[in-house]
Amino acid sequence: MTDNIPRFDWDLSLSAVVSSASTGSDAIGAIEFDPSGEILATGGIARKIRSYRFSSWLGSSSRDDRVESCICTPAKLSSLKWRPDLTGRVIGSGDYDGVVTEYDVEKGVPVFERDEHGGRRIWSVDYTLHNGSVIGASGSDDGTVQIWDPRNGGLEKTVRPGGGVAAAICSVEFDPFGGPLLAVGCADRNAYVYDIRRIVDPIVVLDGHTKTVTYARFMDQHTIVTGSTDGSLKLWDIANGRRVVRTCRGHVNSRNFVGLSVWRHGGLVVSGSENNEVFVYDKRWEEPVWVHGLGQAERLGCDRRELKFEYIDE
């Protein structure tokens, strides 16, 4: 604990429950706010992308009143990410068949597709704006990160972290502050940071977890948060090599993707837990500042039980 930092109380409470499930077979595996923070999209094993107007969850008592659109997809979904460049509602998805598909949410139709992972499951998709162009990345069970330009559909780069050893890629995230970095979480117990201007070798290898790194998220331009099935979250100072700033424990995570997100403006990290609770950590302390139970755990009927959370900066 860092005792010399003045501590204040967070006033956290549950405001709404986002649930598309009418049965136990409709588990949510991905949840994403659009750039405006008003539209929320969910996807999962039911092979549907549902979008909601977030404000409706705070005022409507009917689930049907909240649904803005619903798109049926050909495969189970593991990842969603809104494209950052368009005024229209275009969202990218990664699925269990190893395909990245972009959908026009307003029209409910696919507008772009790429299949570069040999049918192996995609775990994570992300986008960035770089030199005026949109660049996409996808990470898969095939042990590769594919980096590509959706405008022309051409494959730009194939990255194989870990010296070519085919360990599953669990997480990809571009620097959300506009920098040229890409963070990758890998089943070989490491996270990697690449400079997309010259992807040859990683510029930083974050070696400190004892099991699969399921998430790698930027807290700020110099700090990355990683989550692992070793039951810990680690904050890394990437400006000074691979120094661990903080290790947070409390949540339960030994085998599943439990979800991890950050509220960068507030300096908070949120994680799911295999005991069906939500844990919120302040980046300054190792212990959680808020824990909330989600009720009786249910059998979800899938091999990827996940809780995913997103914050809106206000």
UniProtKB/TrEMBL annotation:
Keyword Repeat: yes
GO BP annotations, alphabetical order: response to UV-B
Domain of life where this protein originates: Eukaryota
Keyword line: Repeat, WD repeat
Coiled-coil stretches noted in the UniProt entry, renumbered to this chain: none
Pfam families: WD40 (PF00400)
Start and stop residues of the WD repeats: 137-158, 206-246
Classification via PANTHER family: WD REPEAT-CONTAINING PROTEIN RUP1
UniProt name for this protein: Uncharacterized protein
Organism: Thlaspi arvense
Lineage: Eukaryota, Viridiplantae, Streptophyta, Embryophyta, Tracheophyta
